[in-house]
Amino acid sequence: MKAKINQRIDELEEDIIKSIQDCVKIPSVTTQATEEYPFGKEIDNALKHTLKMCESMGFKTTYKDGHYGYAEIGEGEELIGIVGHLDVVPEGEIENWTYPPYEAIIEGGKLYGRGTQDDKGPTIACIHGIKALIDLGVEFNKRVRFIFGTDEENLWRDIDKYKENGEEIPDYGFTPDSTFPMIYAEKCILQAYLTCNNVSNIKLSCGGALNLVPDKAEYSGKNREKLTSELEKLGFEYTCEDNKVSVIGNSVHSAISDTGINAISRLCIALNNICEKSNTIKFVANVIGEDANANKILENCIDDVSGKLTFNVANLELNDKIEKLGVDIRIPVTYKKEDIVTNLKKISSTYNLEYNERHCLDPIYISEDNFLVKILRKVYEEETGLDSTPISSGGGTYARAFDNFIAFGSVFPGKPETEHQTNEFIEINDIIKAAKIYSLAVYELLQY
Length: 448
Description:
alpha+beta
């Protein structure tokens, strides 16, 4: 059966890539909510588009008021869940993209576009993996349900609504929204705002999504010349245009924020050095600086399972009334959230900043003896010949949403993780290989 599955996926390659392209062309970024579209019209378009595709393959589909949808096939009491998301993070500065983010251009064996890797490409590859089983006449003695999320990049209100509505909870499953071989431990994700009244004369508006390290931070105040001189001394990259000084960083996912360059942090350091100060600027410059592991908040916060704490200064707003700093913190699985929050509140209060929690996702840590881990490891090893030892992640996936779930692919070891970045892409050969692994994994789960 393995050979037949792989052959059928190869035959479906053109359909798989075309389906991913069609979905990527829908700019499903969260926008202003309406009664009809809780996360914006384009996200709703992506959801309906995907459900229609599944229906054409023989799935029974359900659409729930723009919050989520699902597609199911098979019979039996047991329910295997596969959870993916169709919302994407904003594209950032479009002029920085070599290939437009929503045109799904293929170049050099790569498919470019926002959502190609996170998470439209993997989700659609997985759908076609099930389609291959359908085409081959595999008996679905268990039910397989794709649950399509629409708010993964924000507050998971889609999953909350799924549970509030009393929808059936899968017995076990996976999400194709991370890396291979698989993620058995995910850090706690804590997002918060630090706020105070703005008594300075500084106005700033920098950054964007909390789970993205900002790659640009603009300043247009009166001390532009002093700022550029200080940036030169510090060796921080910047540009000047239209009376604005733009500090340049390197954007990466918050889960690996210590591998990027935070433009807001660098701007605050330089502003603080030239005495252009506010409570928030002083906090960022003195407490965080360029230390994305936040050792001044909790020194050497690290464990053997999931690595170091990461702290992302994600956005900063200084207007006529308030100062507001948005941060994203990824906490190692063996630490308690309170370990961080207590220290953060204490230190930030010395800068007259008030802590306001926005969102928190508890960590997950699944035993390597779990049957699901064993089955997915077996499939991955047999198909790739690679080591299948589970790894940990600072990312937050839908594996946290249900018990007995794990993040499984789709980025292979040593390959670029381009999610949330400019010129996000997938390698076509890799996404087809992932489709084969997903198809084989579901086949094995059906036999279990």
